[in-house]
Write a sequence for this structure.
């Protein structure tokens, strides 16, 4: 069974850049789209963006100016960088697999456990 | 962006009850509507796609319907494992967006 695990800092200072990595195990990163999704405490879900294993990328326009998603197929990992962090970016950040394969359907069938990132000085 | 609005925001029900959650899109999304549920401290779980197609392993007492802008999720014979927060999601247009959630609590 595919497993995803987020890693990175739990605390980021305002104006700094958040860097998170998602490691995919028990399955290849190939032939799927991989997404980042976040959830502010007590609130709903926001799709941040996704990347295909070959490098095709789409971002949520609301975050596009601050987001970079990349993939490292040799390590079975994909990463998120989010710049100019503010308190509004405090959230649980999830990585997830899109079950649609090359289609990128937005159907997230496997998720990481999530990592809480707090923005505070 | 396509806005997704769920109602109610929360509801209380008992084991064995039937509950219905409504999701409305700000424009037609045909049947590009999916449902997830989420338990406290856990990642969401995909329940249904295409408005009414159950994911493998999801019990048949969960059903969905709708097209265009109005959709419903119905859970019959509510079981303890069904108490969770439910989210609808549209995948008709980018960026994919979610409703604000409906919390199903034990009465």
């Amino acid at each position: 069974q595919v497993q995803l695990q987020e890693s990175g800092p739990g605390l980021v200072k305002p104006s700094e850049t958040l860097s998170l990595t998602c490691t995919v195990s028990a399955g290849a990163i190939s032939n799927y789209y991989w997404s980042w999704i976040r959830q502010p405490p007590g609130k709903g879900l926001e799709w941040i963006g996704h990347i295909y294993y070959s490098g095709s990328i789409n971002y949520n326009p609301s975050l596009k100016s601050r987001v970079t998603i990349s993939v490292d197929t040799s390590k079975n990992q994909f990463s998120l960088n989010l710049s100019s962090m503010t308190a509004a970016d405090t959230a649980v950040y999830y990585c997830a697999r899109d079950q649609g394969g090359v289609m990128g359907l937005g159907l997230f069938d496997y998720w990481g456990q999530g990592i809480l990132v707090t923005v505070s000085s | 962006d396509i806005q997704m609005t769920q109602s109610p925001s929360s509801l209380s029900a008992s084991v064995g009850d039937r509950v219905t959650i409504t999701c409305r899109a700000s424009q037609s999304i045909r049947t590009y509507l999916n449902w997830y549920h989420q338990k406290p401290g856990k990642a969401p779980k995909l329940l249904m796609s295409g408005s009414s197609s159950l994911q493998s392993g999801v019990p048949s007492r969960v059903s969905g319907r709708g097209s265009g802008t109005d959709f419903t999720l119905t859970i019959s014979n509510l079981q303890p494992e069904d108490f969770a927060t439910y989210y609808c999601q549209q995948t008709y247009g980018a960026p994919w967006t979610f409703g604000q959630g409906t919390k199903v609590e034990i009465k």
